[in-house]
Amino acid sequence: PYFIDLNQNLYLQACLRSSDPNLKVFVDTCVASPDPHDFNTLAYDIVRNGCPRDSSYTTFYSPDSHFARFKFNAFEFMSRHPSVYLKCELVVCRLGDYSSHCYRGCTSRARRDASS
Predict the structure, then answer these.
(1) What is the Cα–Cα distance from 92 to 81, expressed in whole angstroms?
(2) Who is most buried in 13, 22, 28, 95, counting CB within 10 A?
(3) What keywords are annotated for this sequence in UniProt (predicted)?
(4) Are 72 and 57 in contact (CB under 8 A)?
């Protein structure tokens, strides 16, 4: 466990363990929940599909493409539960593939037109 106070910034780093230097890692989704087995019922989106959902979410530059660095603020959601769990999903892309999700960043899916 990692103990933090309300309104304290939480800094995280994800590392891709690969010897391939042509890979890049990107934070796609990060969700907080008081239940480590259920990230749907009572959950708080920090980032979803690469789009920040929490205003305190910030990414940081890393000179190594195998690292994704980010932070967010401990929010009121955490104060109502004795423990809060994080589940983050990352995307791995080819370095320099500018059409990939890693480079496009925030991608909100377009809604389909249901008319006719």
Answers:
(1) 32
(2) 28
(3) Disulfide bond, Glycoprotein, Signal
(4) yes
| pLDDT (average), residues 36-59 | 93
**C-alpha torsion sign, points 92, 94, 95, 97:** negative
- Report the pLDDT averaged over residues 91-95: 95
Look at strands 85-94 and 67-73 and give their pairing. Answer: unpaired
What three-state secondary structure class fits 76?
A: helix
Is domain 9-104 annotated with CATH 2.60.40.4100? yes
Distance in angstroms (rounded) separating the CA atoms of residues 57 and 6: 15
Q: How confident is the model at residue 109 (pLDDT cuts 50, 70, 90)?
A: low
Q: Domain spans of the chain?
A: 9-104
Question: What pTM, to 2 d.p., does this model score?
Answer: 0.82
The two structure tokens encoding residue 53? 């959902």
Which letter does DSSP use for residue 84 in this model?
Answer: -
Give mean pLDDT, residues 95-103. 93
- Contact between 101 and 28 under an 8 Å Cβ cutoff? The reply is yes
